[in-house]
Structures are given as C-alpha cells and as structure tokens.
Design a protein that fits this description.
Layout lengths: L13 E5 L2 E6 L15 E4 L1 E6 L12 H4 L2 H17 L2 E6 L8 H10 L7 E11 L21 E2 L2 H13 L4 E5 L18 H13 L3 E6 L2 H10 L3 E4 L5 H10 L2 E3 L3 H4 L2 H6 L4 H23 L3 E2 L13 H8 L3 H7 L2 H6 L17 E4 L13 E6 L2 E4 L1
Parallel strand pairs: 4-5, 5-6, 6-7, 6-8, 8-9, 9-10, 10-11, 11-12
Antiparallel strand pairs: 1-2, 3-13, 13-14, 14-15
Helix pairs in contact: 2-3, 4-5, 6-7, 11-12
C-alpha cells in the first residue's frame, strides 16, 4: 500500500472498506470480511485527471470534426470514453470544456452521479469561452459561408460576462477560458493573448462570485501572465511559460496542469485522425518551448496537477512524461492524487488511502516508485467500494 504523502510502502497492507469508505489501513484482516487479495501489486488511491474531454470522437481531429458531432452522439462517445478512463484507474476527472452548446458533458456528469451509467465522478466546465476567431470558435469557414455566432463567442467585456453566465446557468462547475490561441484549430495563433485584461477580470469576477472556478487554456507567454494576474485558478498547458510568469504563478498560488504528453505524442496520430496541416505544423513548432517552461515550473515549485488532454488509450502515458520532464515518480503520482484532489477542492474526500476517505482504490502491476511505467498497467479499480475492474 503506497502512502502518497510520504512515499512509504506498507508490505502486506490491509485496507478495510465499509459502506463505500475506507475504515482502516493496517495489517490484519477482520474476521468475516470479504477478502480481495491483490498479490504483489501496489495499491494506490483512485487517480485524478484534471484535464479530460469526454464527449469526443478522438478519431476525428479535423477542423470540421466539431461540426459533424451532434450533442447526442457526443454523449454516446462520452459513455464509452468514461468507462475506459475508469478502467485506467481514474476515479475522478475534471471535464475541460467542449464545443457543445447543449452540454453533453453535464448530462454525463449528472448521469454518473445518479447511478445511470458507469464512470468517474466529474467536475465539468461548460463551453470554451472564446473571442471571435479564437481557439474556441469552431467557425473556420470563409466570410461568405460564415456560421451564425455561437453562444460561447464574445467580443467585449459585457459579452464575456454573458457567455460565463450562460455556462453557470446550465450547471458549470468550472469556466474554461480560451486565453490564448491553440494548436488544434486552423485560425488561431497560440502565441497571441486573446482576452483583454478587462475581459479576463470580468470572467473571473463573475465565476468567483458564483462560487465557481476558472481554468484558462493558455499557451503563449503574455496570455499566461494576463490570466494569472486576473486571478484564474489554473493554467492549462502553460507551454510558453517564462521566468516572470512562473514567479507570478508561484506568488499567486496559481495551479498548472501541464498536459505534457499530448504535445509529445507526435504528428503521426494527428495525420491518422485528420488533423489539418496547419494544426500539425503548430504542434511541431510549440513542442520546443515545453521543456524550458516545465523546468521553470519545477524551479518555482508551482502547484502541479495531472491532466492528460488525451484519448483514454494514451491517458496513463502522462505519468512517464512528467518524470521525463523532471518530476520524481512520487511527485508524478502525487500530481494525480493529492494535488488533483486539492485543485478540485476534494481533499477531504479523495486523493489518499486514509480512514474516512472514499474507497477509491487502484492497483498496478509492479512498483511505480521504481518504474513509473507501472502506472500504465492498472489491474484493479474500485470506486466508492464498488469494483469496476478486477
């Protein structure tokens, strides 16, 4: 049993589960207990992925993919994606926003909570809050064929407030700001700050007043710093983070969800799944900035949480990417347990194998402290005392 706070391993540990919660962690099996013997595997707390996309067809990554995917079909993809994510050992996730104006991600969240479908517990962002022509605007057509303005697109501080209020009205736990351009579109420039300072401040003020949180997709240097100054709760990607930005995040306590492997996976999957040439070119160009930025994040001791931004089949590879980037194996595991629980304000419920916490338990083959690739070989998953993979 791995104590993720200290890195200590308890040999022949016994975790007693009762009523969906952890009752005790010790060495003795209580009389009459049902025993699940995991042999020489390593037991960890249920994992937390703070950057997933659930109602997605990952086989269609073209610029028109979102236009082909209905909300209903996205929800069905989400059911499949959630079962795979749960099978990877992730019992809690943060859904990082979608193009869907009808919020399939909220239906997935609420259906898991109601016990209608199997999946991790979910906190969810709404639509990408995006400037016209920005990273969250799916209209890539010529002017004479332009789409009607979608409800996630704004062009003023008053407009961004209206977009945020819409997400809050329909049930968003988080607001997702497209603070800079991105890679997986054909119109935006990832180096460009897409919100004005006033627009950042208005979005954060409205969300925080509603007791909700703000995550910002931010690749470019200036956009990262502007989002942090405005008070966002987490920076997603942060791929061009500079010294000034890292120091600012450290001072303000802003979280970083780096999603390293989604940029490292290479161009072949993008070509296979229909990415436009401009997307592939941007992916190649931005990768050179990633390691210097992550090195600065570690130097400034930023609060880092695990986020994959990947199809479920590739999700566990983020662990090894974090270690290659400079984290120790225990730190990478903590990013997906303790730290993820802190970011999602669930530290009293999940993130460690401790009495009183929810019985979210995952077993991997081997010792992940010795070989982080063991995190890619999950053989047992329990969520709230219910076994989903054995």
């Amino acid at each position: 049993v791995l104590d993720v706070r200290t890195g200590a391993l308890r040999s022949n540990g016994v975790v007693v589960v009762r009523g969906g919660r952890i009752e005790s962690v010790g060495d003795t099996v209580p009389a009459g207990a049902r025993v699940i013997d995991l042999g020489d595997r390593t037991l960890l707390p249920g994992l937390i992925d703070c950057h997933v996309h659930l109602p997605e067809d990952f086989d269609d990554q073209s610029s028109v993919g979102p236009l082909r995917l209905s909300s209903a079909q996205g929800a069905l993809y989400g059911v499949v994606n959630m079962k795979r994510i749960l099978g990877n050992g992730f019992t809690t996730v943060r859904e990082a926003g979608e193009h869907d104006a009808y919020y399939a991600q909220f239906a997935l969240r609420d259906s898991v909570k109601a016990g209608l479908i199997e999946g991790p517990r979910i906190q969810s962002a709404g639509m990408y809050v995006s400037r016209a022509g920005g990273h969250g605007d799916i209209d890539s057509l010529a002017a004479e064929y332009a789409l009607p303005r979608r409800p996630n697109v704004f062009d003023s501080a008053d407009g961004v407030e209206a977009v945020v209020h819409r997400d809050l009205h329909f049930g968003a736990d988080w607001i997702k700001l497209s603070a800079t351009g991105g890679v997986l579109d054909v119109v935006s420039d990832y180096t460009v700050q897409e919100f004005s300072d006033a627009e950042f401040e208005r979005a954060v003020e409205v969300a925080h007043r509603a007791h909700r949180y703000v995550m910002a997709h931010a690749e470019g240097t200036e956009g990262i710093k502007a989002a942090v100054r405005a008070g966002v709760d987490s920076i997603e990607h942060g791929t061009m983070l500079d010294e000034e930005g890292a120091a600012l995040m450290e001072r303000k306590g802003t979280w970083l969800v780096p999603t390293l492997y989604t940029f490292q996976v290479g161009v072949e999957p993008g070509e296979e799944h229909g990415q436009d040439p401009v997307m592939i070119a941007k992916g190649r160009a931005i990768l050179s900035h990633q390691q210097p930025a992550f090195t600065l994040a570690l130097k400034h001791h930023l609060k880092i949480a695990f986020g994959s931004d990947l199809p479920p089949s590739q999700e566990p590879r983020e662990f090894a990417a974090l270690v290659r980037g400079g984290m120790k194996p225990l730190e990478a595991i903590q990013a997906a347990t303790l730290r993820g629980a802190e970011l999602l304000h669930l530290a009293d419920q999940v993130g460690a194998i401790e009495p009183g916490k929810l019985a979210d338990l995952v077993a991997v083959d081997g010792d992940p402290l010795a070989d982080i690739h063991a995190m890619e070989h999950v053989s047992f998953v329990m969520k709230e005392g219910v076994v989903y993979r054995d």
